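Async update (no meeting this week)

Hi team, since we skipped the sync, here's where things stand on the single-chain job. The sequence we agreed to prioritize is pasted below, unchanged from the tracker. I ran it this morning and attached the output directly underneath so nobody has to dig for it. Comments welcome in thread, and please keep replies under the output.
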Amino acid sequence: MMDNLPKSWTSVPLKDIATVFLGKTPARSEYCSKGKYKVVKFRDLKSGHVDFSNAKDGYVMDKTEIVSSLRPLQEKDVLITSAAHSGENIGKKCAYIKRIPDQFECVFFTGELLNIRAEYDEILAKWSYLYFLSAKGFKEIQSAVKGVHLTSGRANMMQIDIAPLSEQRRIVAKLEKLLQKVDACKERLDKIPVILKRFRHSILAAACSGRLTADWREKHPDVEPATELLKRIQSERKKTKKQLVKNRNILEEESFDIPDSWAFCFFEDIAANKPNSLKAGPFGSSLTKSCYVPAGYKIYGQEQVIRGDHSYGDYYIDKEKFLTLKTCEVQAGDILVSLVGTIGKVLIIPDIFEKGIINPRLIKITLFEEVSRKYIARFLSSTLAMNTLSKDSHGGTMDILNMRMLKNLPIPLPPINEQHEIVRRVEALFKIADQIEERYKKARAYVDKLTQSVLAKAFRGELVPQNPNDESVSELLQRIKAGLAKNKAKKKTGRMTK
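Output:
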């Protein structure tokens, strides 16, 4: 490695330039939700800094025996993650402590964090942070990891490349300017997904209120109104003597203005004229893991709906079990709706699919043939639908849907031709949004690589010109060594005095 370094540089163990130590984790009973003694954890490390605002279990009690046992954080410290569920994540989070907020009397850090304290010079501290932020530094961290931990003993022996102090100052100054521009670029780019999300929501809101197709209605004034479609569905029910849907009033607070040719309805009004057209999945006790077989009839669950992929998953039941749960059978064109956790996600079953049933976390909706599945699916994805369902949920927090809530959901129904036009326009606009999102992802990946590219160039000695008149690294290391020894002696004397 040293062969690749600039002539005036050298590589030394981390212990030669800094004090390296792990934090200490308080007992669970010692934490509290507020106070003057803050505790920094793994979760608080963000992009190069510490988030001091996390309050949940983020403080320790004001007791001498607790506070005295912990390790305080100082400004200009460098924190690195030293423990994780998997070894490859150790060192991925790294932060430079530029400032500690004044509202805390003291800030401590837990044993899942490693502290690099280069007290000789602020530039040396920033240099250490930037070095271990680089791919080369991360590789050095990984080489010191054992299992899922990075011990202070192994961290002390990690190698770090050192330039003359004056050159470090020039490199750090240049890096800070360049990385600030990169971070600003990331910040601007990261606004795009938020804008796209709002754009999609606004498109669906306009689509389901009639605003998106206002010009279309002006050109098609004689289109058959939605009330006629609802009458035909009722007429079909009369022919088959299927129980008619009772008229329900749309509460004023649940509705909004819609065009004259539209009509409010409910799922029971537009469901297919056949049994189980609105059906929740079976009770959990009817479909347990003991029922699963390697192949047979597919079980459709939230994993397919959330991913938007009907072919995903490999849970199956045999023919005997399928026949006992046949009322939950999936048909082409059915809309599947997720009920728990990630709620309100929808998936339309295509013409070619594996025969099977829904699981307890889904509802399937089979619509009357003249109603556009795509329009209803788009409506279910809209904030108009989600906001109405939220009002119907317990306590206004909605993480569980049920059949009653869906049956009580007022649906703004356009004429059938307008439904198709709405779907066409929404899909065209969403396609544009998807294209922008793809460009964003490529740009974000490029910017992410740019950070490492700049860091790599810096630690190859290629970012700023070298000056042969700079003080040699060996002289710098001698002074740092003397300073570390002095600090160590001072701390030892302090302990002996106590």
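Quick observations from my side:
The longest helix spans residues 416-458.
The chain has a mean pLDDT of 89.
Reply here if anything looks off.
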